[in-house]
């Protein structure tokens, strides 16, 4: 039996979907990872795998399965991203674009996520920006100044590796500014993001959530491998002393800036294969919500084909001067 006919009903389709290896039984990953004002970060397991299908084939080798899925998800991401780019190119009135905001503790896997997930897409349509401590010039402006300058143009997928949220995270925890400076920023961020969404942005905000112990393992890994020394920063070890304060600051960010128009997601990130798979789903969901299609031709493809077919025989030789 080829298509499950005879098995009948939805069970038949479930079997067929499983045989095909498609992801029809994959839960709504974005929905599962979305968090809001009631979030309790301490209750979210950094080694969890929400949404991972509970099937024998997946349970046997979840990592192998997720890595293989990422290839398929990557192809769909690339297709969606191309449609986003194409629409903006043919229609300057189309202001749609997607902005991924990646936040995490040190060693949380932001760089690895950019490499793995963004690596599946066309670099021409990507705008990736990493934010470090503000430069002297940036410090002369409002904290959103450098953020605005890095926003993706219509048709682009922007990725922020750290973001305006550092201005209520590191700035608060390491006391780089007094509370009267950072406290009003939550509201400023909410209205800024409202403005972005109203002008065509889809925001995908996510915290890659790792455990204290996993951070230690990753720091040690960097010290064991001379090709990873460049990623090691002795400051990161000092920062570990502020772990609880950072967790509290993250929780406040999510509670105060997890809005309907720009919700936060917490991605369990101790397992890199789960992290990449989940992040790919989050971006794909945002793109799919745009209901994109390839723009139609503003010419008649049949007429254009005929013009080329009608070319005199021998015209190629003429052009080549023969
Ligand atoms: P990395 O992401 O490992 O390259 O590190 C970048 C560093 O820049 C981190 O230590 C951040 O805390 C720091 N950083 C990013 N944004 C800000 C900011 N607005 N103010 C102060 N430090 C920042
Ligand atoms: Mg670092």
UniProtKB/TrEMBL annotation:
InterPro entries: P-loop_NTPase, PPK2-rel_1, PPK2-related. One of its GO terms (molecular function) is kinase activity. The keyword Kinase applies. Keywords: Kinase, Transferase. Residues 75-289 form the Polyphosphate kinase-2-related domain. The keyword Cell inner membrane does not apply. It holds the Pfam family PPK2. This is PPK2 family polyphosphate kinase. It comes from Catellatospora aurea.
């Amino acid at each position: 039996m080829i298509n499950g006919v005879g098995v009948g009903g939805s069970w038949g389709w479930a079997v067929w979907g499983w045989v095909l290896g498609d992801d029809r039984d994959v839960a709504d990953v974005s929905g599962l990872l979305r968090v809001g004002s009631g979030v309790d970060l301490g209750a979210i397991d950094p080694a969890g795998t929400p949404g991972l299908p509970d099937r024998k084939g997946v349970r046997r080798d979840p990592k192998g399965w997720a890595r293989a899925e990422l290839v398929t998800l990557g192809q769909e991401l690339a297709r969606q991203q191309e449609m986003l780019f194409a629409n903006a190119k043919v229609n300057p009135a189309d202001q749609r674009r997607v902005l991924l905001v990646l936040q995490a503790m040190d060693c949380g896997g932001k760089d690895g996520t950019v490499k793995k997930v963004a690596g599946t897409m066309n670099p021409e349509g990507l705008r990736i920006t990493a934010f470090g401590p503000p430069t002297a010039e940036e410090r002369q402006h409002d904290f959103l100044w450098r953020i605005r300058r890095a926003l993706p143009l219509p048709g682009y997928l922007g990725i922020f590796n750290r973001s305006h949220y550092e201005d209520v995270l590191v700035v608060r925890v390491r006391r780089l500014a007094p509370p009267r400076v950072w406290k009003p920023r939550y509201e400023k961020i909410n209205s800024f993001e409202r403005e972005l969404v109203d002008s065509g942005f889809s925001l995908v905000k996510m915290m890659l959530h790792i455990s204290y112990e996993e951070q230690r393992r990753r720091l040690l890994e960097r010290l064991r491998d001379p090709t990873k020394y460049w990623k090691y920063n002795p400051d990161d070890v000092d920062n570990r002393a502020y772990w609880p304060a950072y967790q509290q600051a993250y929780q406040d960010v999510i509670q105060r800036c997890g809005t309907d128009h720009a919700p936060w997601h917490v991605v369990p990130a101790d397992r890199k294969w789960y992290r990449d798979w989940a992040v790919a789903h989050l971006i794909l969901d945002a793109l799919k919500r745009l209901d994109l299609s390839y723009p139609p031709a503003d010419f008649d493809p049949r007429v254009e084909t005929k013009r080329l077919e009608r070319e005199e025989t021998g015209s190629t030789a003429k052009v080549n001067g023969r």
